[in-house]
Amino acid sequence: MEQAPQRSTRQRTAIRATVDQAGRPLLAQEILELAQREVPGLSLATVYRNLKSLVEGAELQVVQLPGENPRYEARHGHHHHFLCRQCQRVFDIHACPGNLARLAPAGFSVEDHELTLYGRCPDCRAAT
C-alpha cells in the first residue's frame, strides 16, 4: 500500500535540512538543538514524530550501533561508521572491505554486514 505524501511543515523542513547539512549521523537531541536555530519552539516530541515519518518515507535511515541510542542520517549507499569514543559523535566511512563471506563459519551464508570502527576523531585527537 502506497503512503500518502507527507505534508511539508517548517519543523519537518528544519529537521530534514539539519540532517542533510550535518554530513554525519545525528542523535535526536543533536537534531533538536541544531534545528531549534531555525525553529526556536521545536520540541523533542516533534523531532521524534518527524524522524519516524521521514524514516517511514525512506527519506532518512536509522543508524543503530551496539549499546548506543539511534542516530539518523540521509539515505545513501552502503557504508560503515566510525564512533569517536571521546565525543561520542559518529562519522560515515565510505569504504568497505568488500565480501566478508570468507570470515563466516563454513556452510553459513552472509546476507549483510555492518562495520563500526572505534577511536578518536581529529578534533578530539587535537585536544589532547
Global outline:
globular
The span between the termini is: 53 Å
- The side-by-side strand order for the widest beta sheet comes to 1-3-2
Largest sheet: 3 strands, antiparallel
Strand content: 15-25%
Estimated structural class: alpha+beta
Q: State the helical fraction.
A: 25-40%
| Number of strand elements | 6
- Could you tell me the mean pLDDT? 91
What can you see in these coordinates?
There is one protein chain. With 128 residues, the protein is of the alpha+beta class. The chain contains 4 helices and 6 strands. The chain has helices at residues 10-22, 28-35, 44-56, 122-127; strands at 26-27, 60-63, 71-74, 80-84, 90-93, 116-119. It has a 3-stranded antiparallel β-sheet with strand order 1-3-2. β4 and β5 (90-93) form a beta hairpin. It starts with 9 loop residues before the first helix and ends with a helix. Mean pLDDT is 91; it is low at 1-5.
Quick gist of this model?
The protein is α+β, with helices and mostly antiparallel strands and 128 residues long. The protein has helices at 10-22, 28-35, 44-56, 122-127, and strands spanning 26-27, 60-63, 71-74, 80-84, 90-93, 116-119.
